[in-house]
Specification:
alpha+beta; TSP-1 type 1 repeat; three-stranded antiparallel β-sheet; two-stranded antiparallel sheet; 4 helices; 9 strands; 23% helix; elongated; disordered N terminus; disordered C terminus
Length: 189
């Protein structure tokens, strides 16, 4: 048995005024686009969908939404995702020299910037303002960086893994999302 914890849902039928304003708000947007490719092939990544505001005024709500993807373990020889991003800068001169870059982990202030340390020296450099989507914010956490911001907590990733394995749950969750109900957790009983 499972229980869904939702925000924005109240039992009963919404008033026609509330229902109408929700409908009006959504008509200002174009349909959601298809989902992008996953940012990673394993280890947990992110995919996004975009929509366009059709109004000459500002539209209420977001024009982008994310979901987790590729939530399967990477093979042992795949290497660390943050380390791969640092290594990609090895062919770029910094202060006139080439460096072998090693990742810096667990920055409490900016976990989604790509900070790397030059091997054999104390030189630490921010090589990119943001890591690639799907990079873990911290080594011992399921939180991931999406568009330069640490988000998508443990419950969302676990929920995604859960409903990928159970198509009926996936269908139910898709229906709930289509009704503008925001899922904030799933509890197994």
């Amino acid at each position: 048995m499972f229980s869904l914890c939702m925000r924005g849902f109240s039992p009963g039928t919404p008033s026609s005024r509330t229902a109408r304003s929700e409908e009006d708000r959504d008509t200002l947007w174009d349909a959601w686009g298809s989902w992008s490719e996953c940012s990673r092939t394993c280890g947990g990544g992110a995919s996004y969908s975009l929509r366009r505001c059709l109004s000459s005024k500002t539209c209420e709500g977001q024009n982008i939404k994310y979901r987790t993807c590729s939530n399967v373990d990477c093979p042992p020889d795949a290497g660390d995702f943050r380390a791969q991003q640092c290594s990609a800068h090895a062919d770029v001169r910094y202060q006139g020299q080439f460096h072998e870059w090693l990742p810096m982990y667990n920055d409490p202030d900016n976990p989604c910037t790509l900070k790397c340390k030059a091997k054999g020296s104390g030189l630490v450099v921010e090589l990119a303002p943001k890591v690639l989507d799907g990079t873990r914010c911290y080594t011992e956490s399921l939180d991931m960086c999406i568009s330069g911001v640490c988000q998508v907590g443990e419950s969302v990733i676990e929920l995604h893994c859960f409903h990928e394995e159970f198509p009926l749950i996936s269908f139910i969750l898709s229906f709930i999302e289509s009704q503008n109900v925001h899922l904030v957790g799933l509890t197994m009983l």
